[in-house]
Amino acid sequence: MGWMRDETGLDKCAANYVPLTPLSHLRRAADVFAGRIAVVHGDHRVTYAQYYDRCTRLASALAAMGVKSGDVVATLLPNTPAQAEAHFGVPACGAVLNTINTRLDVDTVTYIFDHGGASVVLVDTQFIELAEAAAARLETPPHVIEVPDAAAGFPATGRHPAYEDIIAAADPVFEWHMPQDEWESLALNYTSGTTGRPKGVVYHHRGAYLMTMGTVVSWRMVLHPVFMQIVPLFHCNGWNHTWLMPLIGGTLVCARDITAKAIFDAIADEGVTHFGGAPIVLNMMVNASADERREFSHLVEVVTAGAPPAPATLGKFEALGFNVTHVYGLTETYGHVTECIWREEEWGTLDKPARAAVKSRQGVAYPMMEHITVLDAKMAQVPRDATTQGEIMIRGNSVMKGYLKNPSATQEAFSGGYFHSGDIAVQHPDGYIQISDRAKDIIISGGENISSVEVEATLMAHDAVMLAAVVAKPDDKWGEVPCAFVELKAGVEIDEATLIAFTRETLAGFKAPKRVVFQELPKTSTGKIQKFELRKLAAAL
Fold first, then answer.
1. Phi, psi of 460 (to 5 degrees)
2. Does 369 lie in the same domain as 319?
3. Which residues are in the AMP-binding enzyme C-terminal domain (predicted)?
4. Residues 356 and 496 in one domain
């Protein structure tokens, strides 16, 4: 016995060990799926052979510009073919991809250019003035490559080298730089932090590769899906879905402008089978006008994340011909790392409201994750009783390397051997996690904890309400009380007293909002409601 203790000669070698990287998916697809359509954007349609060629040329062009391994190449692009190509072409020359949120202000973009140290930036003509203004503030600004999109109304300014010219002139036989170590940095993503400067989250090749593998399993994907990239590729690299598509020979349909009409048209005309989007996207489609909608006969699979979706929205959305899987994650976890796996044998007979309520849970860990649970302040497991609150803690392969140039924040985030999400949740007896609130969004009124999520879900169930956000309003007697900000559907009217009375039909009196303000809600580029802005308004009421 014990003969396996002698491992002499059983070493890693080129034949049996290759560092994991999502780059391998496109290298394989260029051969296996060479003639299949890889990317669609209006009249732009390229096969996998052409997609690989264009990414190779981008890598070659960047290397010729002096970009070296470990350098940062940034983008200020919407979801267009160039943004997809950057996801492969930038790391293929050994560089780290930094996709920047196109809706940030000049000051923040300047900070990201400087902090990340971008040497080159690819910029859509729509955002060229933003890039120029940010670059002008730096001693060593990044080189700008302009990416016009004439069909969308953004022809080239002529002030910078143009993307297509650079691609056409580049060497098509450039040898890709594959990582020697799967821990090498692949991407740099800045958090959309609501306080202070955004933090630079660093991804490794291994985490992104395993995210693509886990997503195929969890989204029940088979060969050749038609996927519409709605989640901005500057947001967790679009939840890694663009890196995933070549794995199964899928077609990537770019969504430059996120409108209900564009999504319905793509489903009807391109046969889109899968997309991801924040609940605000689902809500937009539920409330689309008749002339924006299109008929389609196939079931469309949708993952939603970004904020807990209101059960009322989920129910209405599924009735249109969509199957929704609720997922959850953060920038620090490459996107989604939990999923609400549907249990047909237990939940198949539920009525629509109960079904939607179950679907709004954040669920259980994705297969590439080690352990995701809810722990108390002492890092002990909370009871699985659906009421005891704790913080969602995450451990697994798709967790960031850490925050760039910020070791203290990295250490704090990883203390106790888990990534601390900052999200407050309960755990059901079956292990499914359900967010109660962000730690900073919980309202403490007269010593009672009120979940803003619960109050919002109640408001969203009213037919007049398009969107609702609830924040704490300072109160002399109770410390703070719930204050609701509500965006109504077009052409609908309702008064404050009626809406408050509606919430009291299902909520305890102390949970019902004490004020309702009717206005358009401030949102981030990814559709998240900016509660910090609403807190300022509530405090001034």
1. -65, -15
2. yes
3. 454-528
4. no
Please check whether residues 418 and 291 belong to one and the same domain: yes
φ, ψ at 167 (rounded to 5°): -65, -45
pLDDT tens digit sequence for 269-297:
999 999 999 888 998 999 999 999 999 99
pLDDT tens figures, 362-402: 999 999 999 999 999 999 999 999 999 999 999 999 999 99
Cα(492)–Cα(379) distance, integer angstroms: 48
If you search the block for the tokens 């399993």, which residue do you land on?
A: 217
Which position has the higher pLDDT, 309 or 24? 24
The alpha carbon of residue 243 and the mean position of all alpha carbons in its chain are separated, in whole angstroms, by 13
Q: Which domain range does residue 456 map to?
A: 443-540
Distance between CA atoms of residues 183 and 96, nearest Å: 12
**In CATH, what number is assigned to the domain containing residue 476?**
3.30.300.30
Tokens of 241: 């879905």
| Calpha distance 104→286 (Å, rounded) | 28
Residue 514 lies in a domain: yes
Both 136 and 197 in one domain: the answer is yes
Answer positive or negative: Cα dihedral of 503, 504, 507, 509: positive
Domain for residue 228, yes or no? no
- Say if residue 404 is exposed, middle or buried (CB neighbours under 10 Å; 0-12, 13-18, 19+): buried
**Selection from 254, 275, 261 nearest residue 79 by Cα:** 254
**Residues 6 or more apart in contact with residue 297 via CB below 8 angstroms:** none
C-alpha–C-alpha distance, residues 450 and 441, integer Å: 9
Rounded Cα–Cα distance for residues 308 and 78 (Å): 25
Mean pLDDT of all residues in 220-246: 97
pLDDT above 50 for 194? no
In a domain, 5, yes or no: no
Residue finishing a domain among 206, 233, 266? 206
201 shares a domain with 62: yes
Contact 187, 99 (CB under 8 A): yes
Q: What is the pLDDT of residues 320-351, one digit of tens each?
A: 999 999 999 999 999 999 999 999 999 999 99
DSSP letter for 160, please: S
Count structural domains, the chain: 3
Residue-by-residue DSSP string for 83-106: HHHHHHHHHHTT-EEEEPPTTS-H
Q: Rounded to 10 degrees, what is the CA torsion of 133, 137, 143, 145?
A: -10
Please report where in the chains the tokens 């209900």 appear, as a residue: 260
pLDDT band of residue 2 (cuts 50, 70, 90) is low
At 386, list the tokens: 């659906």
The predicted-structure confidence for 403-432, as pLDDT tens digits, reads as follows 999 999 999 999 999 999 999 999 999 999
3-state SS of 206-257 is: HHHHHHHHHHHHHCCCCCCCEEEECCCCCCHHHHCHHHHHHHHCCEEEECCC
CB 189 within 8 A of CB 75: no
Q: What is the token pair recorded at 439?
A: 């730690």
What is residue 451's predicted lDDT score, i.e. its pLDDT?
82
